[in-house]
Amino acid sequence: MTPTSQHSDTPRSPQEPVSKQQPNDAATRHEPAELDEIPKGYQQVETREGIKIVRDGPVSFVRRELAMSPTRQRLWQDHMGTTILPVTRTFADTSVAPQSHLNVAEVWGQAGPLIVDIGVGHGESTFAGAVQHPEANFLAVEVYRPGLAKLLDRVVTEGVTNVRMVEANAPEVLDHMLAAGAAQEVWIFFSDPWQKNRYHKRRLIQSKFLDQVARVLAPGGILRLATDWSNYAAQMREVADTHPAFENLHPGRLAGPDSPLTLARLHGTDNEIPQPLTEALDEVGGWAPRFETRPVTSFESKAQRAGRYIFDLAYQKID
Ligand SMILES: C[S@@+](CC[C@H](N)C(=O)[O-])C[C@H]1O[C@@H](n2cnc3c(N)ncnc32)[C@H](O)[C@@H]1O
Q1: What is the pTM of this model?
Q2: Residue 275 lies in a domain
Q3: Within-domain flag for 51
Q4: CA–CA separation, 98 and 114 (whole Å)
Q5: Is the dihedral of CA 205, 207, 209, 210 positive or negative?
Q6: Which residues does the record give as substrate binding sites (predicted)?
């Protein structure tokens, strides 16, 4: 299958405020569920309509159209509880209840390494990884159900048995479904860039999120990141380079005029405002070689057509 951005169910990168988008479960149900305490990541607030339980901060996604063809809906139902992991919710449709612990060996039926692919879109990277590494257990995390359904279609058609999927907010999956040290790798490819300054707080790759990733990674485990937005690439490198749990696997690589960051700034690829070399120069480097398992997805082809550079980063969890 050739990836393309023309699919009707292509998840797009959100650029607009929540209010202008499809229903978003960042807003919460009015009646608090019967819980002894407010789960981590949520807080209780008093509003004119009464008490509400809301998420602590902005979420990194906008929930989009959930419509799927009848065939895909049937497929989804048929695999709910097996390949599609059932999730107990708390206050939002993409939430994960605190008691949702996942037993990896039991759920996958094999004791291989766990690789968690976060924000998989249509799941191209999960699929490619699962086919190349049948001994590993792949968990695809995504809030966009039609994207997961497309991945489901592929794994069922091709008889791939080492993929499980969860339709939920990634930070909650990490906090509640996965035990400390459970994962050997975490992949986050082309995370929504939230390009405008006022939405940067919605970007997934922040120090607090890396705390959550660090907890689930085994010592020596790997975090792999990729993006096509130079400003977000610089932010990812900054937060990961300075995070005490992570070590850059390619320190200083491509620093200077050959850095993709230098080139992106010189050519103004994010905002069409080219910077002079003195300002553009990236003296830090640290960019990883392209992760060979990562396929060119619809997001990457779109970026290539637009002339943007691709940034890969790889970090090891320090013991
Ligand atoms: C730009 S797409 C990239 C898809 C894919 N990784 C690729 O490389 O083609 C980002 C995806 O991350 C998902 N996403 C964003 N925040 C998420 C979160 N907190 N939990 C789960 N998925 C999330 C979005 O729904 C979207 O499908």
Answers
A1: 0.90
A2: no
A3: yes
A4: 20
A5: positive
A6: 196, 228, 297-300
Is residue 44 in some structural domain? Answer: yes
Task: Give tens-digit pLDDT for 130-151.
Answer: 999 999 999 999 999 999 999 9
User: Is 169 marked as binding a ligand?
Assistant: yes
Instruction: Express as a percent the part of the chain with pLDDT over 70.
Output: 89
Query: Is 117 annotated as ligand-binding?
Result: yes
Catalytic residue among 192, 270, 282, 312: 192
- Number of separate domains in the chain: 1
Look up the domain containing 48 and give its range: 23-55
34 is a domain residue: yes
How many Å apart are CA 18 and CA 62, to the nearest integer? 7
At 217-256, the pLDDT tens digits run 999 999 999 999 999 999 999 999 999 999 999 999 999 9
Residue to mutate (ligand 1; options 192, 208, 227, 228; most atoms within 8 A of CB): 192
Token look-up 């640290």 returns 286
Mean pLDDT computed over every residue of the chain: 90
Going from the C-alpha of 113 to that of each of 22, 103, 183, 188, the distances in angstroms are: 37, 13, 7, 17
